[in-house]
Amino acid sequence: MEKNKKILNRELSWLAFNYRVLQEAKDATVPLLERIQFMAIFSSNLDEYFKVHVATLKRLIQLKKSTRQKLAQDPNEELDHVLAEVARQQEELGETFRNRILPALRAEKIYLLDEKTIRPEQEAFIRDYFTHKVQPLLQPVLLTPEQNFFFLKDQVLYLLIELTKANQPPATAILEVPTKKHGGRFVKLPTQNNEHYVLFLDDVIRFDLPQLFPEYDTATAYAVKISRDAELDIEEEVSENLLSKIIRSLKKRETGYPSRLLYDSETPTSLLNIICRLIGITNEELVIGSRYHNFRDFFGFPDFNLSHLKYPPQPTLPHPKLHGRKNLLAAIYHQDFLLHYPYQSFDYVLQFLNEAAADPAVTAVSATLYRVADKSEVAKALVKAAKNGKRVTVVVEVKARFDEESNINWARKLEKAGATVIVGLPGYKVHCKLCLVTRQEKNSLVNYAYLSTGNFNEKTSRIYADHGLFTSDVRLTKEVESVFQFLLDRNPNKQFRYLLVAPFNMRQKFVQLINKEIKNARKGLPAYLILKMNSLQDEAMILKLYEASAAGVRIDLIVRGICCLNPGIKGLSENIHVRSIVDRYLEHSRIYIFGNSGNEKMYIASADWMTRNLSRRVEVGFPLFDGALRQEVRHLIELQLQDNTKARTIQNTYLRTKNATETRSQFDTYSYLQTLYQEAETAQEVTK
């Protein structure tokens, strides 16, 4: 970490977060198959990082020198630091795989073979498998000296093959490893004596190269993979249709500028020179890898039905007060309900939407969709509502990176069903997670709202830790209605008293709340902040936290990812403590707690403290008015502040305490919520 520096480097901070993911792959206390999943997450994260962040640094390098000099840091110098750290982490990933994961697999009688360790009795099966299942999917291309171009697809694994024949110069071929068409990267072999065998698909191909190139004496394959610039160039102008721009940019993504060529360190220089010439890549884009790339394919590693090598099941818990309710709207009319994912079921959100779609008294449904599941039940419910004659308004954020295509497809389906579809907002990403249902009741219209920190995505709700609030409190629903009105009319003259809404009042309100703690501290009154977020990067907010620390405000930060604040520096941040939790689930919620002279204020939000969230996105934070719900969230936050198992400093040092009672916040959260449900069930039985 950069010692005594006020603002830490964002890129290196992100890489530090990804290293915490790699730590989970290295941790022998994590079940083996889960460690393999963390390897896949690490690799997937790094792929995206190169496609976006490294590609952006390379764009900055291409700017005029006079323009580059205005940047906070020289992009050439920054890129050097980034690539050095990536190389270190890649080397550690390889070491973890070879020296930790593979021996642990062998101890469980799971053998990941390669083409040289295949047993004689397995050869017939592999050759037959290759002939019938793999070879029909292969399209090898012989590269000739006359060729001056060859296109490599983004993030696709290729084998670069050196071919030799007596009395002839060596030849070169290339083929795509057909992972998607094959249905995964791994080939399971027949189990023998309770021993499990598996091969990389690329090793099946390596083993059968003589069958693929019978006219050559030898054929040796080396893996290569390219990462291309995935940052979309979108000029968000009102004058042109945004949707058509996104579609055009998506077409460019597959042919984006190369940001990295990952290659096997054993690849002969002559072979590497050939492929570099054909794809137009320089030494600056070359990154040394190992024999195997695309470790994200380990998401599909077979589990052989060995449940003891995975985390014990944690079935989603029913909500203590919503379980069994056939009419959610009626329940929400009388009180607020808070859901905690993935511990509790996302099905209540689907029930809420489907009830609204079917209820004759419901007149309108509005929702913001940022990332939805491929076969989204949320979007289907909104389609159903539109077809049932409701006035449906859906804001579909078509600039949600890597989900643009899916979101565009749903936007078209919703429009076809009769919904009013808003495809984003010029100049802003719509990142808030809101739904508003309007119902005719007696002589008036009543609004029901759902506000969340997480996406309307039933798939990610099983692995992302988020919170969602159902409410009919007019203080909130009226202002949710104003947010949707802004998204429709784009009139910026909206006033919000209770909600924190970026880009309107969110930043200003956070500053006001911090200033109050500063004043209290200077008066000698108790003053504290407890802030949980995914990323902390905004310089103005960091400087404000430094000011609060200097005034004596105690600040506890729980930051999963990027943290550009430097804690514990005397005279700057000595009252600031930062922890990061990486565990079974992805910590995704944002919770902001302010001491407020003993009358604690608590907000739950969709926004991190990044400049883009506070200034260039539509975000919403909402207060919890219900005392019992505030107490519930406060307990969950305390569990995270006490975590001594999966909590780490931003320097990636575990906060484990010898001989202390183990506190693992995610497991303890599940137990706590399970107890709440069991107590509610017991109370109901007693009432009966």
UniProtKB/TrEMBL annotation:
Chemical reaction(s) catalysed: [phosphate](n) + ATP = [phosphate](n+1) + ADP
EC number(s) per UniProt?
A: 2.7.4.1
Q: Which GO terms describe its biological process?
A: polyphosphate biosynthetic process
Presence of keyword Lipid biosynthesis: no
Q: Which residues form the active site?
A: H431
Gene Ontology cellular-component terms for this entry are: polyphosphate kinase complex
Which residues are involved in binding Mg(2+)? R371, R401
Domain Polyphosphate kinase middle: residue ranges: 121-301
Residue intervals of the Polyphosphate kinase N-terminal domain: 8-112
Where the record annotates domain Polyphosphate kinase C-terminal, the positions are 328-489, 499-663
The record ties this protein, via InterPro entries, to:
PP_kinase, PP_kinase_C_1, PP_kinase_middle, PP_kinase_middle_dom_sf, PPK_C_dom2, PPK_N_dom, PPK_N_dom_sf
Q: Which residues bind ATP?
A: N45, Y464, R560, H588
| A Pfam family assignment | PP_kinase_C
Superkingdom is Bacteria
Recorded GO terms, molecular function? ATP binding; metal ion binding; polyphosphate kinase activity
Query: Which coenzymes or cofactors are required?
Result: Mg(2+)
**PANTHER family with a match to the protein in the record:** POLYPHOSPHATE KINASE
Q: Which family does it belong to?
A: Belongs to the polyphosphate kinase 1 (PPK1) family.
Q: Which NCBIfam families match?
A: poly_P_kin (TIGR03705), PRK05443.1-1 (NF003917), PRK05443.2-2 (NF003921)
| Function, in words | Catalyzes the reversible transfer of the terminal phosphate of ATP to form a long-chain polyphosphate (polyP).
| Name of this protein | Polyphosphate kinase
Primary gene name? ppk1
